[in-house]
Amino acid sequence: MVSIAPAARRRAIATLALVGLVTLLALGSLGTGPVKLSPLTVLDALFGGGSDVQQIIVREIRLPRAILALAIGAILGLSGAALQGLLRNPLASPSLFGAPQSAAFGAVLMISLGWADVRSWALPVAGITMAFLSVFVLLGIAGRNAGLLLLILAGLAISSLAGAATALVMNLSPNPFAALEIAFWLLGSLEDRSFRHVTLALPFIVAGAIILMSQRSAFRALSLGEETAQSLGVNVSRLRLLVILGVALGVGGAVAVTGTIGFIGLIAPHLMRPIIGHDPARLLIPSALTGSALLLAADIAVRLIPSTTDIKVGVLTSIIGVPFFLYLIMRERRALGGGVA
């Protein structure tokens, strides 16, 4: 009991610190832009004070963007932690398994065929369907006890296929301007998002998060092995299906309004694991908060980086995420091979 109390206190402090960090970054997001506003001005405008211009900037332009960054970062971090818990593999994440790319293909197909615009409910439905299929196919191809290499290869194949299908749809688009708009949208951005986009994505993100959080105890049992989990009453097949559904709902809803934003789901759990520990149940909420913090920080950064054109937040997260992913692969190789090349 003596050793448990400090660990529990450390986890509580880390979670509270993350809540504080996310709050500060949200305020920073509301104050950052061509018109810079102080935190006090932001708070004043949020609650009806300040000038009419300040209220419009904060409440109508920047608040939807901050809400989306917070919610989408959270579901990506939560999905990454859930997939890592399900597969018991530290390299599992939605972006590596083709879920965002497949969701983007579903959304792009709907736009290109003229069946939906960027504010239609058909967009997240198409994204969710394709994300669900991608993760389901991945688990079907790789199998229940897939190793690291097999998972990466299967995920790469699905991602490549989804990317090629998306490129084909754009190539066959009868309107070159629509193809260009889709290309920019695919880079991943929170720019020019409104409360319409919030209402479009948030129900699916919340539903996905609820499903994943409801399986916390099952993740803990699964960390002991599938046979042990089944002896403890966990239906592993049902758990796998629920995780696929939760990831598909959350990631599909997110991609439908922002395009592809990668690597948040991979990085967030790894940043928290040294502090929180390896218990997948306890890692879910801190990973979600870390995902929110990462995406809020990235969205603030793209507005602060001097550039003649707007840098897409998906580009920045990929630039940061790819070296991190390579580092994780090298670490796994050393762990498996004892450091021998």
UniProtKB/TrEMBL annotation:
Which Gene Ontology cellular-component terms appear in the entry? plasma membrane
* Protein location: Cell membrane
Q: Classify the protein's membrane topology as the record does.
A: Multi-pass membrane protein
The Swiss-Prot or TrEMBL record describes its family as follows: Belongs to the binding-protein-dependent transport system permease family. FecCD subfamily.
* Segments traversing the membrane: 66-83, 95-115, 121-141, 148-169, 198-219, 239-271, 283-305, 311-329
Q: Which UniProt keywords apply?
A: Cell membrane, Membrane, Transmembrane, Transmembrane helix, Transport
InterPro entries found in the cross-reference section: ABC_BtuC-like, ABC_transptr_permease_BtuC
Give the main location: membrane
A single GO molecular-function term is: transmembrane transporter activity
- Top-rank lineage group of the source organism: Bacteria
The entry's protein name is ABC transporter permease
